[in-house]
Every structure is written in structure tokens, then in C-alpha cells.
Amino acid sequence: MPKEYVTDSGKITISEEVVATVAGVAATECYGIVGMASRKIKDGIAELLGRESLSKGVEVELDGNKVKVRLYIVVGYGTRISEVAKNVVEQVKYKIESSTGLEVQHVDIRVQGVKVGSLK
Length: 120
Known about the structure:
- There is one protein chain.
- Helix content is 28%, strand content 43%.
- It has helices at residues 16-28, 81-100, and strands at 3-6, 11-14, 33-42, 45-48, 58-63, 66-76, 103-115.
- Helix 1 (16-28) crosses helix 2 (81-100).
- The chain is elongated and about 50 Å long.
- The N and C termini lie far apart (35 Å).
- The model has no long low-confidence stretch (mean pLDDT 86).
């Protein structure tokens, strides 16, 4: 259910898709993240999503002014997964709260895969 703000000038509606995109972009900016993954794993392999479909790797649940987020990520080999996840949680929470005004109640990280190769 989208979040609506009513002002003197009109109505502002923030959809779950917008929150998911903000979360996906914030996550991919973190060191150690190779990309977002599809929510579904096919044949034991996580599908890496392109920049234009980052929100497909994010589930958002809006409840009034509060939001819960679940991210499906792929991390780079050799990184400490717990530290990467901690940084992603902090970054996603900050970006959502500062850009939408919603309160982030919970950020859940699901590591769908590890990719061998260069990190950004």
C-alpha cells in the first residue's frame, strides 16, 4: 500500500516500487556488493540483476509510516559477509529515511550468492 502525504499544495504518493529502487541503489553503492539478485534462485544459481531492475531484488512492506525491507544480494568473494551486510543495512536505512521520510523498522539481508572477481 503506497504512503500518501497531503500538503496544502496537493497530495504526494510514495509507492513500494520507489522505496525498493532507493534501497537497491543504496545497497549496490556499498563496498563488497557485486549486485542485486533475483528473489528466486534457479538451479542453485542466483541471477544477477541489471541496474534498471534493481527493485526486483528487493521486497518492501509499507505499514503506515513504517517500512520493512528485504534485500537479495550477491557479495564479492573474499569480503567479510557480516561486515558487508552491516554496512548495507546502515546505508539502506539512511537513504530510505532521508529521501522518503519513512521510518525503517527492519532491513533483512539475504545473501543469494558469492561472485569471484574484481570488486568496485
